[in-house]
Amino acid sequence: MSVHSEIKKITTETLRKMKFDKEKITMLTAYDFTTAKMVDAGGIDAILVGDSASNVMAGYETTLPITLDQMIYHAQCVIRGVNRALVVVDLPFGSYQSNPEKALESAVRIMKESEAHAIKLEGGKEVEKSIKKIVNAGIPVMGHLGLTPQSIYQFGTYKVRAKEEEEAEKLMSDAKLLEELGCFALVLEKIPAALAKKVSESISIPTIGIGAGPDCDGQVLVYHDMVGMNKDFSPKFLRRYLDLYTEITGAVSQYVKDVKSSDFPNQNESY
User: Fold this and answer.
1) Cα-based distances in Å from 28 to 35, 64, 120, 125, 127
2) pLDDT exceeding 90 applies to what percent of the chain?
3) Whole-prediction pTM value?
């Protein structure tokens, strides 16, 4: 058993120490109380209240439509289900890009109204002033480089990022900048494994990978993908630990059958 599984509350400092001790960090998304409770009980180190809620909870094609109010609502639900994990909340698209004051205001609202532990935002040099302002206010910030889904219309594709030398160099300098600015950790999404290894070795803050190979300091997956609730999404980096889609639709079909045939409820299930 790892020393960290004994810890009552995971903090940003715990994650730094885990990197130093070469213990891998585990992270999953959650967007509601019941899921958060189960994920936390399973021993996860960190929970991301991701703007991926826009996809898996609201059915949108991109992460762009979700609002700050909606993110706060999801974060409030999650926080109530968590005893141990560090809870990080995504700043949604449009809540931090335009100016540092707005970024700080958004981050403060998340921290005050949801009681979450940290925020995450996408980008490097472009959002430097916003990160500086939020960190200076005493709010822990997790960075996010590589494939940044909020910029999807700029990229035009969800393909692997930073394959070319120029983009790889920018990613490396952005990673160092985020460390300098005081980010406590960094998500690396869909970049070559060799580059993720290089970045992880070049900075002292933990890297958490998604489709970024095995050498990051930790890994994150979307809960709905990991437990197989999503049938339509099968990227190379995803490992499915359950096939809940089949299990749940099967259970629903059985329930329908039992009600239609008057098998449910039976005498033992009646008062």
Assistant:
1) 10, 20, 14, 27, 25
2) 94
3) 0.96
